[in-house]
Amino acid sequence: MRKIFQLLTLALVMVLIPAVADAGDWIVRGRLVSVSPNDSSSTIGDTGTKAAVDSDTVPEVDVTYMFNNNWGVEAIAATTTHDIAAQGGALGGAKLGDVAVLPPTITLQYHT
Which segments within 4-104 are labelled E, that is strand? Predict the structure, then answer.
Protein backbone atom coordinates (compact mmCIF):
# COMPACT_ATOMS: atom_id res chain seq x y z
CA MET A 1 0.00 0.00 0.00
CA ARG A 2 2.84 2.38 0.83
CA LYS A 3 4.47 1.80 -2.58
CA ILE A 4 1.18 2.61 -4.35
CA PHE A 5 0.88 5.83 -2.33
CA GLN A 6 4.45 6.79 -3.28
CA LEU A 7 3.78 6.15 -6.98
CA LEU A 8 0.55 8.16 -6.88
CA THR A 9 2.33 11.04 -5.11
CA LEU A 10 5.11 11.02 -7.71
CA ALA A 11 2.56 11.00 -10.53
CA LEU A 12 0.69 13.94 -8.98
CA VAL A 13 3.89 15.96 -8.59
CA MET A 14 4.85 15.26 -12.21
CA VAL A 15 1.42 16.43 -13.40
CA LEU A 16 1.57 19.63 -11.36
CA ILE A 17 5.02 20.66 -12.60
CA PRO A 18 4.45 22.48 -15.90
CA ALA A 19 6.63 21.70 -18.89
CA VAL A 20 8.42 24.92 -19.85
CA ALA A 21 9.61 24.86 -23.43
CA ASP A 22 10.61 27.31 -26.12
CA ALA A 23 10.34 27.19 -29.89
CA GLY A 24 12.43 24.36 -31.34
CA ASP A 25 12.60 22.41 -28.05
CA TRP A 26 11.97 18.68 -27.79
CA ILE A 27 10.17 17.29 -24.72
CA VAL A 28 10.50 13.57 -23.96
CA ARG A 29 8.28 11.99 -21.30
CA GLY A 30 7.39 8.57 -19.98
CA ARG A 31 3.96 7.58 -18.71
CA LEU A 32 1.76 4.57 -18.11
CA VAL A 33 -1.05 3.81 -20.55
CA SER A 34 -3.95 1.51 -19.85
CA VAL A 35 -6.04 0.04 -22.66
CA SER A 36 -9.30 -1.41 -21.33
CA PRO A 37 -11.41 -2.76 -24.21
CA ASN A 38 -15.18 -2.65 -24.04
CA ASP A 39 -15.59 -6.35 -24.76
CA SER A 40 -19.35 -6.72 -25.01
CA SER A 41 -20.23 -9.41 -27.52
CA SER A 42 -23.22 -11.44 -28.60
CA THR A 43 -23.35 -15.18 -28.03
CA ILE A 44 -21.53 -17.45 -30.46
CA GLY A 45 -24.25 -19.54 -32.13
CA ASP A 46 -26.39 -21.56 -29.69
CA THR A 47 -23.47 -22.23 -27.32
CA GLY A 48 -24.22 -19.37 -24.91
CA THR A 49 -20.55 -18.42 -25.17
CA LYS A 50 -19.35 -14.82 -25.37
CA ALA A 51 -15.90 -13.39 -26.10
CA ALA A 52 -13.94 -11.53 -23.41
CA VAL A 53 -10.84 -9.36 -23.87
CA ASP A 54 -8.48 -8.53 -21.00
CA SER A 55 -6.96 -5.11 -20.21
CA ASP A 56 -3.27 -4.17 -20.26
CA THR A 57 -1.22 -1.35 -18.72
CA VAL A 58 2.22 -0.61 -20.19
CA PRO A 59 4.92 2.07 -20.14
CA GLU A 60 4.59 4.69 -22.86
CA VAL A 61 7.07 7.16 -24.34
CA ASP A 62 5.98 10.42 -25.90
CA VAL A 63 7.93 13.09 -27.74
CA THR A 64 6.77 16.69 -28.26
CA TYR A 65 8.31 19.19 -30.68
CA MET A 66 7.53 22.85 -29.91
CA PHE A 67 6.84 24.98 -33.01
CA ASN A 68 6.83 28.11 -30.87
CA ASN A 69 6.42 28.89 -27.16
CA ASN A 70 2.76 27.80 -27.17
CA TRP A 71 2.19 25.22 -29.94
CA GLY A 72 3.67 21.75 -30.14
CA VAL A 73 2.99 18.39 -31.75
CA GLU A 74 3.24 15.17 -29.72
CA ALA A 75 3.67 11.56 -30.85
CA ILE A 76 3.23 8.61 -28.49
CA ALA A 77 4.53 5.05 -28.71
CA ALA A 78 3.13 2.13 -26.71
CA THR A 79 2.04 -1.41 -27.49
CA THR A 80 -0.43 -3.41 -25.43
CA THR A 81 -1.22 -7.11 -25.74
CA HIS A 82 -4.60 -8.66 -25.00
CA ASP A 83 -5.85 -12.24 -24.64
CA ILE A 84 -9.23 -13.09 -26.14
CA ALA A 85 -11.06 -15.89 -24.33
CA ALA A 86 -14.43 -17.59 -24.43
CA GLN A 87 -16.68 -16.80 -21.49
CA GLY A 88 -19.52 -19.05 -20.37
CA GLY A 89 -21.20 -21.88 -22.25
CA ALA A 90 -19.45 -25.01 -23.50
CA LEU A 91 -16.32 -23.12 -24.56
CA GLY A 92 -15.95 -21.16 -21.28
CA GLY A 93 -12.31 -20.36 -20.45
CA ALA A 94 -10.93 -21.45 -23.84
CA LYS A 95 -8.37 -19.10 -25.36
CA LEU A 96 -9.60 -17.84 -28.71
CA GLY A 97 -6.52 -15.81 -29.61
CA ASP A 98 -4.53 -12.73 -28.76
CA VAL A 99 -3.94 -9.33 -30.27
CA ALA A 100 -1.31 -6.60 -30.02
CA VAL A 101 -2.52 -3.00 -30.18
CA LEU A 102 -0.28 -0.13 -31.24
CA PRO A 103 -2.37 3.02 -31.07
CA PRO A 104 -0.18 5.54 -32.93
CA THR A 105 -1.31 8.95 -31.74
CA ILE A 106 -0.28 12.40 -32.89
CA THR A 107 -1.67 15.33 -30.91
CA LEU A 108 -1.54 19.05 -31.50
CA GLN A 109 -0.94 20.77 -28.14
CA TYR A 110 -1.37 24.29 -26.83
CA HIS A 111 0.83 25.23 -23.85
CA THR A 112 0.04 28.30 -21.76
Answer: 26-35, 50-53, 56-66, 71-77, 80-87, 95-101
